[in-house]
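Hi L., both proteins are below.
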Amino acid sequence: MKKLVLAALILVSAVAHAAFFDSGQGARPTGLGEAFVAVADDANAMYYNPAGMIQIKMISTTATYTGYMEGLSDSFAAIVVPVPGYGAIGISWLGLTAASSYSESTLKVAYAYPITKQYTVGLALKLLSKSYTLDSVASGNPFFSATSASGLGIDASFFGKLTDEIALGASIENINVPDINVGSSDPVPMNIRVGGRYKLDRSLLVALEGDLSGEDAKIKGGSEYWLDSGLLKELGVGNSELGFRGGVGYGNNSYLNVDLGFSFYLPSKIVDLRFDYSFTMPLMYIEGAGTHRFSICITEPRPAFNL
């Protein structure tokens, strides 16, 4: 019976939202308040704006673990491979589990193509799947006559680097509004992201983004600062760098989040490593239930993100 109750609760997974709800991924982007559509300069671009992959000059990978409330977590992994003269390709996987009774997965393949030196377009195809694990009580409920479903989603994106300091980004996700139907209609809403970023100097950037998904409208903003590596060298940690970031998101339906995060970047002759952490605190719902994210980014021995 306990599993039946949990299954009913998570039918609207990711905290009382529809399946495949956009909860954000990557500790660096979420530390920026999820204002990443116009930043998109590491492998997290696969989630926010595949067109931004054009900025990645070396093979880049990332993996993220997110812990929500008890029994609810997700994992995200992505790899981006630049193709000189032809753009970049990427593949990612996102999986969510809830109390061992419900799971979602998204397998995504994307391509970024430079239409000019300044402007890039991206196209992504993704396989969306979800399934339930039922106990003997739930299996007798006609609502659960089907326990799994899948469908294809289509995303399109844009990235424009107007100057060295200013960039714009846009992404339209689930253009075809796929219906991942298990017993009743459950369409995945179209999600639109539009934003810009401005680099004040080599180490400081600010970003702003607006999101629209179904009836949910949000505005998000964040800033990132990288500490001068010269100071860290004096502390005996070589060419490593520390990054700090913060962000905020506000929207309808009781959406108000505050985000904080940091990174430790460690270059080497073999691979470059970046360890990211972020903490998200919702201020208008689920009081006290903050979200922790941990990411690792691995690239060839050269930064794949623009400092």
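That was the first. Here is the second:
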Amino acid sequence: MKPLKLVIAGPVAAGKTTFVRTLSETAVVDTDEVATEAIGKSSTTVAMDFGTLDLDGVPLQLFGTPGQDRFDFMWEILSEGALGMVLLVHGQRPADFPRARDILEFITSRIPVPFVIGVTHQDLEPVWRPDEVADFFGVEHHQAVGLNATRADSAAAVLIRLLALIEEQEGANAQAF
């Protein structure tokens, strides 16, 4: 069976690598390197994170994108052929939201895919709630969900929400014909 491809995107430190590592049932291929710029953490993804999991016999591939602008050429490469996208935003860093919006618009303008916004760091205070993030991005509230990227059940809930949106869109497309 052909694997399903999902893209995990977002600004630096939103939790993309953690999300992929949490969900992957295989060893994660990552390209983390020592950060050469002041980005608020010691290492950064320079090409991608890649993990896989089995979804009731269907292989699911997770491609995490780099968050830094200088690696933005990877966004389109990694998004090609994707069925959907999880855009992660750090709930305590609203200053990063415009950058996240740029990433979202860049990817969806080239590869129009269903997406959900995972709002990380919901266990901290103060933090933007998913409904507030949905309002900021101008999307339906069901497209934004709180997320603890270190917990498999929380990360899986985001995937389930995305897969439901993909299924919903495929149903709407089938009715259009």
